[in-house]
Amino acid sequence: MNHFEYVDGVLSAEGVSIPDLAQQVGTPFYCYSTATLERHYKVYASAFDGLDATVCYALKANSNQAVIKTLAKLGAGADVVSVGEMRRALRAGIAPSKVIFSGVGKADAEMREALEADIAQINVESIPELIELNRVALDMGKKARIALRINPHVDAKTHEKIATGKAENKFGIDWTRAIEVYRDAAAMDGIDVTGIAMHIGSQLTDLTPFREAFTRLAGMVEELRTHGIEIKNLDLGGGLGIAYQGETPPLPDAYGQMVRETVGHLGCHITLEPGRLIVGNAGILVSRVMYIKDGEAKRFVILDAAMNDLIRPTLYNAYHEIIAVNEAGDGDKMATVDVVGPVCETGDTFGKDRKLPDTLQPGDLVAICSAGAYGAVMSSTYNTRALTPEVLVSGDKFAVIRERQSIDELIGLDKIPGWLD
Ligand code: LLP
């Protein structure tokens, strides 16, 4: 459910018409809906009512300060994977006690800053990282609260580039070695073992792999107890998928129920790290049609947005619905088109063989849907295209929450060495 709807045949974000926004902000731009963000957060969080649980929003999905702050106001914590994301979370008002630092390789400086900020937990993903964190913590005269991220060797049945829980994936410590690593960790003076973490992948549309992984995790917590290692915090990661193309992912309530069934009896605090589910369908990428080219094989709709603005279609063959901002009337003919960007790569294609109104013309607007997660955050300046602005709507108000970068600013980042003068 989202708050992008046609009102009198024109797409609106809550109470704001998209063409009005386009006129004021220019195109392309990302547009997010506060009501949708809030709704998703609340529906997700309420699935864990009655459990001792914290929802730590995974900033990587969309780390705009305004988005984080919207969620922080509802009580969200943060899952961060870099010192940059940690600063974003803290700056948006999330308490350090609700911040978890995940990620496969943390630099010394990141560990130091995290320990200095006294965040809730650092999730450690390998033995060398554990040794390093112990060293840094001792050096600072501190004890680092940690979870070990365990790789449960479970196939999440998602796109190979976003599956993280299989033996061949770089993530976490193999579950078969976990007990031994926990015992090592417990013996380190700079380490305070508080938790266990898992994240098996993203865009999961079935509960079975989660169930398998969490059952394994519960068994490990019980086994650790027999070794005198008390786990207080279970970090279950994120990963619950959303509908991009008619998928029917499990609802948060069903996920919450499965969490209760698999780990509810352990008496631990539970952390959840949803990203996509909170922001994915709360955002669209709005773009203007520049040209329509009738080729011999195809009709191409050429947009002013490109793969640098939204990389998911070309990187993961991801499907994003594309709709005309002016709704097609009942009797309108639809044309079959490829929707492409202007970047010089064949992969710069948002969608193939899509249906858009036959009347679509240069100057018209389209919306690329479900672009709130892993959209703006993964954008680049490829082809020296400036970063796209982001807009947040709330009711009939809107605010530009990231300005359009100027091309001069972008070029200004380069430096010419003296010898070339
Ligand atoms: N926790 C950890 C440790 C993660 O690695 C991730 C995502 C999440 C939580 C949030 O997962 P979510 O709830 O959003 O599925 N760029 C890719 C997705 C990469 C996900 C990486 N990790 C995409 O556009 O599909």
TrEMBL record:
<dbReference type="InterPro" id="IPR029066">
    <property type="entry name" value="PLP-binding_barrel"/>
</dbReference>
<dbReference type="GO" id="GO:0009089">
    <property type="term" value="P:lysine biosynthetic process via diaminopimelate"/>
</dbReference>
<dbReference type="GO" id="GO:0008836">
    <property type="term" value="F:diaminopimelate decarboxylase activity"/>
</dbReference>
<comment type="function">
    <text>Specifically catalyzes the decarboxylation of meso-diaminopimelate (meso-DAP) to L-lysine.</text>
</comment>
<feature type="binding site">
    <location>
        <position position="276"/>
    </location>
    <ligand>
        <name>substrate</name>
    </ligand>
</feature>
<comment type="pathway">
    <text>Amino-acid biosynthesis; L-lysine biosynthesis via DAP pathway; L-lysine from DL-2,6-diaminopimelate: step 1/1.</text>
</comment>
<dbReference type="InterPro" id="IPR022644">
    <property type="entry name" value="De-COase2_N"/>
</dbReference>
<dbReference type="Pfam" id="PF02784">
    <property type="entry name" value="Orn_Arg_deC_N"/>
</dbReference>
<feature type="binding site">
    <location>
        <position position="312"/>
    </location>
    <ligand>
        <name>substrate</name>
    </ligand>
</feature>
<comment type="similarity">
    <text>Belongs to the Orn/Lys/Arg decarboxylase class-II family. LysA subfamily.</text>
</comment>
<feature type="binding site">
    <location>
        <position position="316"/>
    </location>
    <ligand>
        <name>substrate</name>
    </ligand>
</feature>
<feature type="binding site">
    <location>
        <position position="374"/>
    </location>
    <ligand>
        <name>pyridoxal 5'-phosphate</name>
    </ligand>
</feature>
<dbReference type="GO" id="GO:0030170">
    <property type="term" value="F:pyridoxal phosphate binding"/>
</dbReference>
<dbReference type="InterPro" id="IPR002986">
    <property type="entry name" value="DAP_deCOOHase_LysA"/>
</dbReference>
<feature type="binding site">
    <location>
        <begin position="273"/>
        <end position="276"/>
    </location>
    <ligand>
        <name>pyridoxal 5'-phosphate</name>
    </ligand>
</feature>
<keyword id="KW-0663">Pyridoxal phosphate</keyword>
<dbReference type="InterPro" id="IPR022643">
    <property type="entry name" value="De-COase2_C"/>
</dbReference>
<dbReference type="InterPro" id="IPR009006">
    <property type="entry name" value="Ala_racemase/Decarboxylase_C"/>
</dbReference>
<feature type="domain" description="Orn/DAP/Arg decarboxylase 2 C-terminal">
    <location>
        <begin position="29"/>
        <end position="372"/>
    </location>
</feature>
<dbReference type="InterPro" id="IPR000183">
    <property type="entry name" value="Orn/DAP/Arg_de-COase"/>
</dbReference>
<feature type="domain" description="Orn/DAP/Arg decarboxylase 2 N-terminal">
    <location>
        <begin position="35"/>
        <end position="279"/>
    </location>
</feature>
<keyword id="KW-0457">Lysine biosynthesis</keyword>
<dbReference type="InterPro" id="IPR022653">
    <property type="entry name" value="De-COase2_pyr-phos_BS"/>
</dbReference>
<keyword id="KW-0210">Decarboxylase</keyword>
<feature type="binding site">
    <location>
        <position position="345"/>
    </location>
    <ligand>
        <name>substrate</name>
    </ligand>
</feature>
<feature type="binding site">
    <location>
        <position position="239"/>
    </location>
    <ligand>
        <name>pyridoxal 5'-phosphate</name>
    </ligand>
</feature>
<comment type="subunit">
    <text>Homodimer.</text>
</comment>
<dbReference type="Pfam" id="PF00278">
    <property type="entry name" value="Orn_DAP_Arg_deC"/>
</dbReference>
<feature type="modified residue" description="N6-(pyridoxal phosphate)lysine">
    <location>
        <position position="60"/>
    </location>
</feature>
<feature type="active site" description="Proton donor">
    <location>
        <position position="344"/>
    </location>
</feature>
<feature type="binding site">
    <location>
        <position position="374"/>
    </location>
    <ligand>
        <name>substrate</name>
    </ligand>
</feature>
<keyword id="KW-0028">Amino-acid biosynthesis</keyword>
<protein>
    <recommendedName>
        <fullName>Diaminopimelate decarboxylase</fullName>
        <ecNumber>4.1.1.20</ecNumber>
    </recommendedName>
</protein>
<keyword id="KW-0456">Lyase</keyword>
